[in-house]
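Technical note accompanying the year-one report. For the benefit of new consortium partners, we illustrate the data format agreed upon in the data management plan: each record pairs a sequence with a structure-token string. No post-processing was applied to the example shown here.
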Amino acid sequence: MALKDIIVPTMGESVSEATIAKWFKQVGESVKQDEPVAELETDKVTLEVNSPVSGVLKEIIAAQGSNVEVGALLGRIEEGAVQTAEVKAAKPEIAAVKSAVVEDKSGPAARKIAEETGVNLAAIATSGKDGRATKADVLNAASSPAPVASTQVTTSSAPREERVKMTKLRQTIAKRLKDSQNTAAILTTFNEIDMSNIIALRSEYKDAFEKKYGIRLGFMSLFVKAAVSALQEIPEVNACIEGDEIIYKKHYDIGVAVGGSQGLVVPVVRNADQLSIAGIEAEIARLAGKAKDGSLAMSDMTGGTFTVSNGGVYGSLLSTPIINPPQSAILGMHKTEDRPIAVKGQVVIRPMMYVALSYDHRIIDGRESVTFLLKIKEAVEDPRRLLLGV
């Protein structure tokens, strides 16, 4: 039978190397054509490598954790081969071995009582010969109260630390963020937003919105819309520096920071100025879904002109977000909390959110940064402005 090579596919512009994150199949296991056999991790995304044919995985050339380049040989598939009975039985046998180890630690009486009381034999203290669990050990474990804190210092055999190699994505994030700090003259300005009106708007229309568009109405789309409006009025915030030139972007591709399976990623909502609130929500939901299942492509995360990050979903009250280069600014949203504020001479309790704008002072002055945040504040506190474009 013919052997077919599993090759590292082209991974996109400027990406030539990847790390083998995992093998989904073991040598000897059957695979179907186009079934994922391995997962590769680049400095931007993860992607699956599919089997070119149906057959049996005959050989793994590049082990998990190794670095490979585009076109490298990962392994070989024996086309048309059938998985043997021995391989099929391998995994059950492993489970049986583990079960046998537990049963070797106990006698029949101890096992019977453990089954009746729900005691985990592998987790109890044993007093029998060769570490075997006795009937008394099981009864004692079943009747013992939950352990309490002890002043006696015990020595654990568990390791006190674990060393894990950084993923390529995490290495790239670390490098880009440090480069941003080393290159840009980063300052952060703050303001606070009364979220009362936007919360009321969302509460009133969220059911009708979801019924019509099939997606939930969140705050992020409204902030993205407010950011686009502010960027149109203050073009410096949507610009970037290249050499000794300032490039003013005439398009509004907004990066939205989301938590993914490989850490924080920033996919881009393209042409956000041309999208409705529903369109922005749908695109954010689509990109967030791809981030969670690790299927974001590089084209999803490149070319952003401005970024919005919501640390409030994790409970952050205030932060100074770091610019995502080559962009010149990033808007940070935070947790909404009820706080006392003065309104027309009266102290009232309102749901308030701190917002932060980190910006590159080489291109954006204090006046522009403060005005930008004020525009965001005005639009969110009075959402009618977003509809009227004022």
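Partners are asked to follow this layout when depositing records. Residues 94-102 have pLDDT under 50 and may be disordered.
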